[in-house]
Amino acid sequence: MYSIVAQGALAAALLIAVILYYRARAARPWRAASILAVALVILTVSDTTVRRADARRRAVSVASLRKDLPHLGLPQRGYAAASRCQACHPSQHASWHRSYHRTMTQAAVPGAVVGDFNNVELTSFGRSYRLERRGDEFWVRIVDPDWEHDLVEQGVNPDTQDPPPPVWKRVVMTTGSHHHQTCWVGSAESKELFNVPFVWLIDDRRWAPREHVFLRPPDFGRSFDRWNDNCVECHSTPSGRELADAPHFTDTRVSELGIACEACHGPGEEHIRANMNPTRRYALHLGRTGDPTIVNPARLDAQRSAQVCGQCHGLNLFKGSAQRAGIRYKPGDDLRLSRGILRGRIDNVGPDEMDDFHGSRSHMATQEPTYFSDRFWPDGMVRVSGRDHNGLIESPCYQGGRLSCLNCHAMHGYASRAGQLAAGMDSNAACLQCHGDVGARLTEHTHHAPNSTGSLCYNCHMPHTVYGLLKNIRSHWIDSPSVAVAQATGRPNACNLCHLDRTLAWTDQHLQEWYRHAPADLAPEQRTVADSLLWLLTGDANQRAIAAWHMGWEPARQASGDAWMPPYLAHLMMDPYSAVRYISERSLRRIDGFGGVVYDFLEPPEALRARRQQIIRLWYQRQSALGVQPRAELLIGLDRQLDGSELARLASQRNNRAVDLRE
């Protein structure tokens, strides 16, 4: 592909040749033919010269990019590369290549970078940034991250110092390709990669400051993130830190960027070498036996198979010297030998091994007192996204030795790219593999119509109580709705996540009648006010985000109606947490007549207050069209006016504890 300058030069040469040809053709045809021949020679030579120059330019550009990327390749550990798997496994390679796993981390080249770099000016925490695209390269003007890094290492807050003039840094790598994408620049001093403090919101096609797209306290401030000391663990294949410049792990070495074949199947070099012999290959196919030179998660027992996913989709602590020397887990191993798996507490980590967690046994208690509460509900159910393994291992289905991730998910032959669900697993088929008796009496069991969302197993047993990336996802701790648990943990229950317009007393009554639950001791408000409004008005930031997201969830809107929701979503548009404001606006746009509301979750409080009033006025104007009805539990009186005093009273009880979910 030619550069713009090269294309222009060739076009100009061609135009001049055409003009000379037509001017000479009428008077001296022989001269015209000579001109045409010479022009063709010149164009051929020019084309070759330009092609070579472009190739040299691209080679220099790629070499510069690779200089700042992590070292690639781990041949001494037996790792090969996904490209070497393709020849024998073309269909599996193709399905992996389409997945978000492959594009989790990529070199910053055209086709991988999805954000707008067309001379964009951005600001965050008083600093200005500029993004530019230069041919095939992406650049950002930024305060020198090496200067910031040195101050952070000295324990000095860079925001308290006068920064040096900004510098231009080339973006060398990206993380994310589904919901968000963030970018990384290299260091002039080491192999460390520093985060550009903005996130490209893919669906919205806009940039947002990184701190505003995570559920973090409003006063959290500006963070300074390095790829090498965190993201490398799960966003590459396999994660590892060899030849580390202690204590900063700056010289990172990985097999491949992104999550590739060997992340799940283990080192492939021996497998490739053994199967160079065609007789062996065909014998394995005909015998349909496993190949001992490679790991197939489908042939592992449920525990080991789930651990393959759990190495990344889990909250784990490294044991011994694993973090410093490189991550030694390989698929098929017992993950617990190299990691302490968190289960609302530290599991299988001895007191001496705690010294390896950031160098201090007391680190969790003194430096991160909310470590567990920011990651788990009070009963130990994980509450942050991407940690599904921690939920799965608490489920009776898993503990009975029957359930692994592969019962529902697939890397190859999947039906849903987003959730990697295997074909047909977006129905009750996943659960009926083991619970066929329930399928035979589905309506009796669910008390809902057989084809309704209320008869989908996962809506009741895997509700969306896990938060991450501006949305809620399903819990993988498979359990049953319980009012007692909801009261004890503050975790919204599945019934009220769908029936948003109902009280907790309503749920309590049905669970007593249908499943013989003991009656709960309910507070007066839990008997008279819809449970979703209690989360929304009195809950913490996580509960408010859950309420806002479910008001945009189609099954809940069908079960509850959405005519009553706009004023409450408008209320959350003034929330101190920017992520809650964003989710509320997205849910509001799904309600008839509110899709055109102009709103930006990053606007200053005065503008947000004006937007809220605009939405409430619009709601009153559209009440008849929406079909708003008086509902005491929704604080809508007989005159269809909001009970402002009760709304204000409940809002004054909002739980303002700091929430930092560490997604």
Can you lay out the helices and strands and say which pair or pack?
Elements lengths: L3 H24 L1 H40 L2 E2 L17 H8 L7 E3 L12 E5 L2 E8 L2 E6 L2 H9 L13 E9 L4 E7 L6 E9 L4 E4 L26 E2 L15 E2 L1 E2 L3 H5 L3 H6 L3 H10 L14 H9 L5 E3 L3 H4 L13 E3 L21 H4 L21 H5 L3 H4 L14 E3 L4 E2 L6 H4 L3 H5 L1 H5 L10 H5 L4 E3 L2 E3 L9 H7 L4 H5 L5 H12 L8 H5 L2 H8 L2 H10 L3 H7 L5 H7 L5 H11 L16 H17 L1 H4 L17 H8 L12
Parallel strand pairs: 1-11
Antiparallel strand pairs: 2-6, 3-4, 4-5, 5-6, 6-7, 7-8, 8-9, 10-12, 13-14, 15-16, 17-18
Helix pairs in contact: 1-2, 21-22, 22-25, 24-25, 24-26
Structure description:
This protein is an alpha+beta fold and 663 residues long. Strands 2, 3, 4, 5, 6, 7, 8 and 9 form an 8-stranded antiparallel β-sheet that branches. Strands 1-11 form a two-stranded parallel sheet. Helix 1 (4-27) runs antiparallel to helix 2 and helix 24 packs antiparallel against helix 26 (605-621). The two termini are 40 Å apart. The chain contains 28 helices and 18 strands. A hairpin with a 2-residue loop joins strand 17 and strand 18.
Mean pLDDT metric = 89
Structural class: alpha+beta
Helix content: 25-40%
Our count of helices gives 28
The radius of gyration computed from the alpha-carbon positions, rounded to a whole number of angstroms, is 29 Å
Distance between the termini: 40 Å
> Largest sheet, described in full?
8 strands, antiparallel
Give the percentage of residues in beta strands: 5-15%
Q: Runs with pLDDT <50, length 5+?
A: 242-247
Number of strands: 18
Shape: globular
